[in-house]
Amino acid sequence: MQKTLMLGVSLALTTVACSPTQPPAPPPLTDYTRNSGAARAPEQLAVTFEHADLGIRVDPVRHWIEGDARLTFLATAPLRRVVLDLDRNLPIDTVEVDGKALPRRAFRNPEGRLQIDLPSPLAAGARTTVRVVYHGSPHTAVRAPWDGGFVWSKAPDGKPWVATAVEGEGCDLFWPCIDHPMGRPKLVDEHITVPAPLVAVGNGVARGMDEVDGWRTYHWQSHDVSTYGVALNIGPYRELSGSYASRFGNTIPTHYWYVDDEAQARALFAEFPPMLDFLERAVGPYPFAGEKMGVAETPFKGMEHQTINAYGNQYAKNPYGYDDLLQHELAHEWFGNQMTNANWDDMWLHEAFATYMQPLYAESIGGRQAYFASLMQLRSRVANKHPIVSGQPRREEDVYDDERGPGQDIYDKGALMLHTLRTVIGDDAFYRSLRLLVYGTEHPEPGNFSPRYGTTDEFVGIVDRTSGRDMRWFFDVYLRQAALPELKVARTGQTLHLTWSVPGNGPFPMPVDVRVGDRVVTLPMNDGSGDVTLPEGAGYTIDPDSKLLRRDAGIEAFRAYIEKRKPRKT
Fold first, then answer.
1. Prior bond to 103 cis, omega within 30?
2. What's the burial of 104, exposed, middle or buried (CB within 10 Å: 0-12/13-18/19+)?
3. Helix (H) or strand (E) segment spanning residue 114
4. Phi-psi bin for 383: left (phi > 0), alpha (psi -120 to 50), beta?
5. Cα–Cα distance measured from residue 507 to residue 456, given in angstroms and rounded to the nearest whole number
């Protein structure tokens, strides 16, 4: 019934969509819309987002969409209005509450925060369904996925090829939502209408396709989708499908939608099973086995859209023979979609863990050499300009912008920190901590976990419990300080004296290995210092197994050299 009504609205607007004149360029995005993750309004905190039933008609020729969103909320406190996020450049045609149209004065959207006055107050425990019908030319991404929006392109055969990537700016670029990591709906239905013979691929499970008057409507259904993980993928897609027999006894449907090169597509599709097997072995069950492990080829590099990851890496291979972007985005199904950061300030929980899965995967293929070679690539990029975690709620841009926040360090520095943490607490405690973060249980099995939110403080507490140690000193330095700890080494006669110097001057009892001749001595460094005696004529190596993330003069010299070689801005 809902699907039919949505199609009716779309067909009623056909005369608008087929107009030959191009719409004027929309005004710039407001600051509120441009930056995802602003504090939620009190009204948004007072609801559970139960269902987003989205009808979106996409006209690739005019770069135009028509939307019909039915959003169901459960009030957890008395409610007088519903507050949503939607780009003001998508004009609203009508708003209904529980089937009754509202007068124009009952809703307003000046800056991209849509306020809808309810006809009568809603009591705690009651439900309401708000319908928003809208249209317009959605924001176009300039450099997706780093700059978010719609990507309007053409496939090699000349047919339209359209995709969305909205991590930075948020879901409100094309549908009315709660644009905050904790705003995910429990159920999402996507009814995507496109010109035949194009194919529209969305999140979750395919529920069917109807074709009317040269327009196809594809129905996709998914559960607990991360807000920026809701995606549209439209093009002359061809499909590869199969199944993966999980080590946990269930079967996972696998799909790849591609636009051109079948041979390369099949080669990429063959990478799905070993990547799934590794991540299930390292982390635990694939979180969305009841839906699919899906990938859609896109005209931009990539993004971790839940169950339909965007892939546009031109079928690249790294020295270990696999596509590292595909593996990184797949890791986000665990770190990002199953476990979602509660605030953008916790975004390292997505990026550091997904990045660390790449050296681990390289090791599973190429051994320890591949592992440490991958880590060295990460080490050469660490900037240390800002702390990874500020301890305050932040918007997306405040984290990803290298000038205002940690930027790339949430990937590289975060992954290297995890490597060091693993060496300190041991594999058992490390992987138990990882599973508790992702699933909320040390013993995940298909059916005994649901998507959840994670925070930095929660993870620190998990590590304390699994290791049986107070590890706050570790995270206080690596997450909450910009500079790296420095190991100062002084020699007096045959005595080597080591001292940790850390930003913030707090405790840092980080053990240090020293190779002396053919033996390795471990200094506990309980008070931040330690001594080792060198036999006459013996050489030594500090941290011979590369366990420690610390200040490195050689890396700093390398980075300074690279900075000098960068073209000057004019």
1. no
2. exposed
3. strand 113-122
4. alpha
5. 20
Q: What's the confidence (pLDDT) of residue 26?
A: 63
Q: Are 414 and 389 in contact (CB under 8 A)?
A: no
Residue 537's pLDDT is what? 85
Q: Which residue has the tokens 């990026």?
A: 351
Taking the C-alpha atoms of residue 397 and residue 389, their distance in angstroms, rounded to an integer, is 14
Say what the pLDDT of residue 563 is: 84
In angstroms, the CA 105 to CA 257 distance is 44
Burial-class residue 513 by CB neighbours within 10 Å (0-12, 13-18, 19+): middle
Annotate 309-343 with three-state secondary structure: EEECCCCCCCCCCCCHHHHHHHHCCCECCCEEECC
Distance CA 160, CA 393 (A): 39
Place of tokens 């973060």: 437
* C-alpha dist (Å) from residue 155 to 162, 163, 234, 256: 9, 12, 10, 16
The bridge status of strand 293-297 relative to strand 238-245 is: unpaired
Which regions in the chain score pLDDT beneath 50? 1-21, 23
User: What is d(CA 181, CA 349) in angstroms, rounded to the nearest whole number?
Assistant: 13
> Cα–Cα–Cα angle for 205, 211, 214, nearest 5°?
135
Is 248 strand, coil or helix?
coil
- Nearby residues of 519 by Cβ (< 8 Å), 6 or more positions away: none
- Cα 336 from Cα 27, distance rounded (Å): 32
pTM above 0.90, yes or no: yes
Q: Which amino acid is at 235?
A: G
Give the span between the Cα atoms of 347 and 202, in whole angstroms: 24
Q: Measure the CA–CA gap between 434 and 356, rounded to whole angstroms.
A: 12
Q: CA 180 to CA 40: how far, in whole Å?
A: 7
CB atoms within 10 A of CB 501: 14
How crowded is the C-beta side of 267, counted as CA atoms within 13 Å?
11
For residue 523, count other CB atoms closer than 10 A to its CB. Answer: 16
For 27, the token pair is 């005004």
What domains appear along the chain, each with residue ranges and CATH number? 2-235 (2.60.40.1730), 238-312 (3.30.2010.30), 344-478 (1.10.390.10), 486-548 (2.60.40.10)
